[in-house]
Amino acid sequence: MGKARPLVIDLAFANPPLLPLIMSWEASLPSTGSDHIPITITLAMPSPNQKPPRPRWADTGLETHDQIIKGFKVAAAPPCPTPLQLDQWMSESLNRLVALLKEHTPVSRPSHHFKPWWTPHLCILRREYDKAARAARKHDTPYMREVAGTSKAGYFKAFKAAKNKHWSSFLLAATPQSLWTAKRFAYGRAQPHFPSLPGAESPLQMNEVLLDHFFPPKEPFSAPPRLRPHRSATPLTTDEIASALSKCSPTSAPGPDGIPYSTWKQVNKINPSILLHILAPLVSPGISPRLTERLERCSA
User: Fold this and answer.
1) For residue 35, what are the domain limits?
2) What is the CA radius of gyration of the chain?
3) Which of 150, 192, 279, 289 gets the highest tally of CB atoms within 10 A of its CB?
4) Are residues 162 and 132 in the same domain?
5) Is 108 helix (H, G, I), strand (E, B) or coil?
6) Domain count of the chain?
7) How many Cα neighbours within 13 Å face the side chain of 176?
8) What is the pLDDT of residue 300?
């Protein structure tokens, strides 16, 4: 059996995202004494500069999937729930909605070398410059060195011209919301520095000092066993949600779900009942789901 060629290569339990990293395989290990032969697989290390996929929320096109958004149903909230039940219901409903939005959003994997001012003309000049530089290193003649120098000068000249053109067009189209971005580009990125505090020499110690100063420990208090709506609570309306979303800037940083306000505005425009049914059970008892989870942990 050790000299026979294996008839079947079983990769049934391989992870599909891992398959592109498989460089080679070989059956050089001794036989296990059964019908199976162990296979040694060599994997390529992923590039540390490779950035994770990023959803292109500007190209979501929810208008083309309006029937899917209109057909989304939010499960009814449990009556008189405990704080933990309310938190679980909120998390499940929101996770289903976020998964639906990400499913119909195109994804891009930005390159480490991607720049907004890069043009196809620069790609051609870059290839010509690399070609001339390799030829100059190979032949090392005055003529080839002159050609390489001319190609390099032309490439860097076009390089700077493309950056200046992009910067000029960016300033001409600047808005009050993009002034901070223009300032960051003009002054550059500040050097990373670690602030100092008395008695804190590491980030972990600084975290403990700040938490103890601004959030001193208190005696744990119990959360209510059941949440019931307040009699004086005003019912939440779709107009109130739309008014709150209208005040949110599309350029603001998204929350933990990674979805910007522009996408939430489109969702609320297509189907206003989604956010209403998710937020209404939280307004009537007047409590936050994450707060209820912390309260229940403290009382446990």
Assistant:
1) 1-43
2) 29
3) 289
4) yes
5) strand
6) 3
7) 1
8) 43
